[in-house]
Amino acid sequence: MRLTHFIFLLYIFSFYNCKESKLELIKIEGKQIPITDTLPIDSEIEAYIKPFRDNIQKDLDSVLAYSVNTYSKSDGELNTAIGNFMADAVYNEANPIFKKRTGKNIDMVLLNHGGIRSILSKGHITKRTAYQIMPFENSIVVVALKGKQMDSLVHHLIRKKRAHPISKLKLTITENNDIVEAKIKGKSIESDKIYYVATNDYLYNGGDNMTFFKPNDSLYPLNYKIRNALIDNFKKVDTISPVIDDRFTQIKGAK
Amino acid sequence: MKRRDFIQQASAGTALVTLGGLGLQSFTTVTASKKITILHTNDVHSHIDAFGPEDGRNANKGGVARRAGLIESIRNENPHTLLLDAGDIFQGTPYFNYYGGELEFKLMSKLKYDAATIGNHDFDNGIDGLYTQLEHANFQFVSANYDFSNTIMNTHTKPYKVFKKNNLKIGVFGLGIELNGLVDPSMYKETQYIDPIEIAQDMSRILKTEEHCDLIICLSHLGYNYKKDPNKISDLKLAKATKDIHLIIGGHTHTFLSKPTIVKNIEDKNVLVNQVGCYGINLGKIDFHFDSNKNISANGTSIIV
C-alpha cells in the first residue's frame, strides 16, 4: 500500500516536472551579514580551536630573554638602540649560516627603519615580542655588491638620513653631508671589491626605494626569516641592552 | 533592448533593478519556486579568533565560531545552500605560522565549505606547503586558470565543480591572480597562469551548454577593480567581458562594498559582483529565486541589493 502510494507520488512529480519543467531565475537578493559579538558562538567549534590557541599562547608567552629598558625606533637620530640590536642580531645569526654554505663572511647588514613594527618593552622578552617587532614573513638574503654599488647604498643612507638599521658599516658625515668616514668592518670601501650585504627580500626587491641591490653579482637567499633570527638571538642571550652608538652619525659644526 | 532604470529605494537603503521586461510580476503558484542560497567569504587570512576589544579598526568583529553559528542558522532556514571562499585563506595570524594552514582547512571542513579558490597568499609556505595541508580540506579547490600539471598540485584542483541543490545545477569555477611579480617564483614553482577572460568564456560555455547549469558562479581572486591600473584584469572587467555568469565572488583587494555591484556583461545582461572585505568580518549572502515560466508573464530577473 505504502509502495503504491510512493509510486503514485513519483508519477505526479514527474508529470508535473514535464509540464512546467523550465524554471527561470526571477529574483536575486544580495546582502552582507557582519560577524559581530551579538552572534552566538558555536561551542563545538570553539572547543575545537581551544587546544590550538592554548598551545600557541603558551609558546608565544614563554620567556626567552630580558630587556633592560624600553627601546623605540624613534629614540635616536641616525641610529637607534633597537635598530642596532636588530641589525647585529641578523649579523650574528645569519653569518654562521652564510659562512657554512658559501665559505664567505657577511660584510654588513642593512634593514629598514620602517620594518621595525613595534617597541621592545622593558622586562620579559617572549616569542610574541619577536612577532610584534617583526610580524612580516620576510627572509634574509645576502647580496654580492661591487664597491661601486656600495657607494649608491651609502649615498642612499646619507640622502634619506633615516635610522635604517645597519651592522658592520660605520658612516660619519659632516653637516654638509660630506663623508668623513665610510668603513666596513673597519676598512675603507674599495671600488673593485665584492661586498656581501645581508638584507631582507623585501628591500632586495626595491622596497623602501632601495633600488641599489639590482643588478648585482649574485644573490644568496638564506630561507631564514628575520623574525626567526630575532627569536634565535633572544634564546642565546640572557639580557638585551642595546645602545645608540657611533655607527651612523653626523658631526654637528663640521662642514 | 529596453533598459530598465536603476531604482534606488532610499528609505530602505536598498536598490531594486529589473531588466528585460515589465518588472516584477505577482505570481500565483508557489509550488514550483525554489531558492538557492550562496554564502561566501574571502581573504580570511587565518583570522580564526575574533578581533579583540582593543583592536583599533575591527574590535570584536569576525571569528570562526560565530561564523559557524550564523551559517548553521542560514542552512536550517534553507538547506539548499552553498558555502564558498575566494582565496587567501592563509597568512595573517600565528595560527598560520604555527600550523601552516592546518587549522584553517580543518575549520572550513567543519563549517562544510563546498569549494574555494586559491589566492596568492595560499602559496606563502610554497606550493608544497599548500599541498601538505590538502589532507585537512574536505572541500574542492577550483582553479581554471592555474595550470598545475608540472607541480605537486596536479590533479588536486578542478577547473570547476557542478553542485546539485534542490534539483538545480550550480556550476562554480575558479580564477586566480597572476603570480609573477606578486609571489616569489620559488613558491609557486612551475604553476602556469592563463589569461582569465579566455578561460572564463570557456568555463561559462561548458557550464551552460555541456553541464546545463542553472546558475554559473565565478570564484575569483583577481581583485575587484584597479583604478590606477585600468588595464589590469579585475572582477569588474571580467564581468563586462564575459557572458552567462550570474555571480562573481571576488577577493584579493580586501574590498568592502556597501552592497553587491551590478555590472552589464557583454550581452548587456546583469552580473552580480561581490566581495566582503577581509578577515572573516562579514559573510556574503546571495539568494537566487527560481520559478516556473508559467508564473511570470515577462522574462525578467529582479535584483535586490
UniProtKB/TrEMBL annotation, chain A:
* InterPro entries reported in the protein's UniProt record: 5'-Nucleotdase_C (IPR008334), 5'-Nucleotdase_C_sf (IPR036907), 5_nucleotidase/apyrase (IPR006179)
5'-Nucleotidase C-terminal domain ranges (all copies)? 75-214
Regions crossing the membrane = none
Q: What is this protein called?
A: 5'-nucleotidase C-terminal domain-containing protein
Organism of origin is: Flavivirga amylovorans
Phylogenetic classification of the source organism: Bacteria, Pseudomonadati, Bacteroidota, Flavobacteriia, Flavobacteriales
Automatic annotation (TrEMBL), chain B:
Task: Provide the Calcineurin-like phosphoesterase domain boundaries.
Answer: 37-255
The keyword Hydrolase appears for this protein = yes
Source superkingdom:
Bacteria
Going by the UniProt record, its keywords in alphabetical order are: Hydrolase, Nucleotide-binding
Asked if the keyword Nucleotide-binding belongs to this entry, the reply reads yes
Q: Which Gene3D superfamilies match?
A: 3.60.21.10
Q: Which Pfam families match?
A: Metallophos (PF00149)
Protein family per UniProt: Belongs to the 5'-nucleotidase family.
Could you tell me what this protein is called? Metallophosphatase
> What organism is the protein native to?
Flavivirga amylovorans
